[in-house]
Specification:
It is a single chain. The protein contains 23 helices and 15 strands. The chain is α+β, with helices and mostly antiparallel strands. The strands form four sheets. Strands 1-2-3-4-7 form a five-stranded mixed sheet, with helices on both faces. It has a five-stranded mixed sheet with strand order 12-11-10-13-14, sandwiched between helices. Strands 8-9-15 form a three-stranded antiparallel sheet. It starts with 7 loop residues before the first helix and ends with a helix.
Length: 689
Amino acid sequence: MKQKLFTKSAFKIALECPRRLYYAYDSKLYANQDLTDDFLKSLADGGFQVGELAKVYYGVKGDADIDVLGYDEAVEKTKELFKNDTINIAEAAFCSGNLFVRADIVEKKGNDITLIEVKAKSWDPAAAFIATQGRTRGCINSKILPYLYDVAFQKYVVMKALKELYPDQQFTVKARLMMADKSKVATVDGLNQMFRIYKNGDRSYAQADELAWTVAGVVPENERILTAFDVDQYCDMIIAGETGEQGKPDFMEGMKFQEFVEVMSKHYCERTIAMTTLGTKCFKCPFHREAGDKETLRDGYRECWKDMAKFTDVDFDKALVKDLSGLYTPTAKSGLMKKHKYFMDEITYDDIERSKNLKEPGLDNVQRKWLQIATATGKEELLKDFETYIKDGVYVDTDGLKAEMAKWKFPLHFIDFETSKSALPFYKGLRPYEQIAFQFSHHKVEMGADGQYKVTHQSQYINAEKGFFPNFEFVRQLKKAVGEDEGTIFRYMDHENGVLNDIRRQLEISEEEDKDELIAFIKSITNDAERTMVDIAKSVLKYYYHPSMKGSNSIKDVLPAILNSSKLIKSKYSKPVYGTPEMPSLNLENKVWIEYEEDGKTVKNPYKLLPSVSTYLDIPQEELDKMEREDDDTVSNGGAALAAYGKLQFSDTQMSQALEKALLCYCELDTLAMVFIWEYFNDCCKKAQ
């Protein structure tokens, strides 16, 4: 088998977009942003660990765990193991024609085969796999659809392969989907840490320690955190083409399951391009080049748009519908794509109506969308609606900001949380993907009688202790940080509010001596309490817009826009004033936050200026260089922070300390970013007086 075969990974890609099969065939030919470091990704969602726990549950070890990588060797080893009348096999391989699958777990009892696909996804046993009423009646639940189709594809290939291998025998194949069960709680402590993640070159994997076999392996089936849900009937319906979503033009190109598999496998294996329609799925295409990618890699995204929409190189630089803010109007882009409108200057009021609510202060979601279109296209008739507050291409509603900021009470507190949700709980009594709050940062702004203010990185908390459940201590430390006065507390978006409410529910069923006090504190700053946290992102959404933000309101995109808008911040923070007695920091000294790109005008994103993990390691330079080549070891976004915390739980002392320092710096910048936003708004309002 020298040619590539149509695997379950290829099938998954085909479901997302058939044309992507062509780009996915050769990873050395096309750029693929999905080929991220699976080591970090597995730490974030616990995927490798879930798979390894399933092996423990089914007692698979030694030769029954097929770890060979080649098609032929894996199939031959599976055939050899099938000589056993009763056996459980991990990574069993089956091939039929140009179709090939590796099953996570195969349970063989004579000629009765149970196929178990293991996913790092949580599922509520009370939820329905298929809709029984409404307009989606007979359709697979969209939340589980790709997973069920994955299992169905495997069952289809396994049945075909068994018929070919054993024509004189009759096998029955049943399908199960093993997922983290939302109704279960961990009955053992430290479950997550029993499955350590390793990396060997390009390969990452989990390995169960001895405790996993002696403790987790003997947990009664009804108490296990993973449940093998019976999905056999749904797989049969999918294979037979009887589910409601099949045959519709916007799913599997209008084909039924078996035809789709046949057509797509032929395209993939014969290296031909499968045709599809342009849609919102194209906006998430991973086969595009980004800065830092090898110049030899081709850009499948651009090739596709050039072929299907007849784009030229110039068209990619225009204001595109794909960049339009989809917030609160998720169908807008889809409708525009169906009309073959790909550029913002093609949008009319027939496509997106004017806002009907003009009484509320600030921009509503529709107005914000039209503001984006106006600034992106430069159309004067559109810009007229916003010209009162546009200066140098930037929109700042100082009247609205003044009214909003007048409600804020000094000292101002800016907080940010870093949290973890892993499929396998770290602690006994927790459910899969339950909230773990392991870190916060806190900046404080005090205003003097003379109108001068002082910025201080006031406090922080991080749990670096392995096996310790940090949530309750987290709240205690947060209470100390912001609970001593009545100053306004700021967050960015809803994350912090949700985290505190999750911890409140955990406290309510806990036996903590101070739980009533902690619950009262949480209630005092969440939801609709008198001192509820203020979401500064709402002020951004209503009163500020910079064209560089495009359709994003993430603080990672808002911050560079703010810095490029503000002469005050550029002047102030281009000097090493941060991390000095004038502006104290708990982690950084004499830090310069304003650096410029090669054009000398555009401010670099400060998240790119954070020190890497390897900066804090006392190891030879040769090893540091190797680490930075193999891993993006800068903690510069929430996903990386989550992964870093997971990695911290398994690392030796030196690496743990390095990860802790990197996490502290990252979280500090998140709260400093909110301070920058406030400083800019404050300066704009002063100038408008």
